[in-house]
């Protein structure tokens, strides 16, 4: 896997993945940026959430769960010192579907956390306290 990150101006960088997709990262205006994109540490959180959500959805599809929506709300805390590493991350999955079976949702979240999500497992191995929780919402077509 490869990627490149190129400085463009002020506190702005363009990252390009090996698959050819680009994303702008930028700092806040008070730090010389123009606030044109997420901060690099925010990208790390987004990537971790994407990695885990991919796992959860893959397992729910394989178990034939009728998922209408799945999102993960991520909260993180960082150290007050330099480097300002993540010290705690909590990922809360909200899975909306029709007739979802709790044992399938619970197992998908657990397997992502314990076995499959390379990003969250790597952060946990580095000493970050990574928590996972979930809730299920029954889809209401009238809503």
TrEMBL record:
Protein name: OsmC family protein
Matches recorded under InterPro entries: KH_dom-like_a/b, OsmC/Ohr_fam, OsmC/Ohrsf
Naturally occurring in which organism (per UniProt): Halioglobus maricola
Gene3D superfamilies (UniProt xref): 2.20.25.10, 3.30.300.20
Signal peptide stretch: none
Lineage, highest ranks first: Bacteria, Pseudomonadati, Pseudomonadota, Gammaproteobacteria, Cellvibrionales
Pfam family, one: OsmC
Source superkingdom: Bacteria
């Amino acid at each position: 896997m490869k990627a490149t990150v190129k400085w463009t101006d002020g506190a702005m960088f363009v990252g390009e993945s090996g698959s050819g997709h680009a994303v702008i990262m930028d700092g806040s205006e008070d730090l010389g940026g123009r606030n044109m994109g997420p901060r690099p540490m925010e990208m790390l959180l987004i990537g971790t959430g994407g990695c885990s959500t991919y796992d959860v959805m893959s397992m729910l599809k394989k178990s034939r769960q009728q998922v209408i929506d799945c999102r993960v709300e991520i909260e993180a805390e960082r150290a007050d010192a330099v480097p300002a590493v993540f010290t705690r991350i909590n990922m809360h999955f909200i899975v909306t579907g029709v007739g979802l079976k709790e044992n399938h949702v619970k197992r998908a979240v657990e397997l992502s956390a314990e076995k499959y999500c390379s990003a969250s497992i790597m952060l946990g191995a580095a000493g970050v306290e990574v928590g996972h929780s979930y809730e299920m919402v029954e889809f209401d077509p009238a809503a």
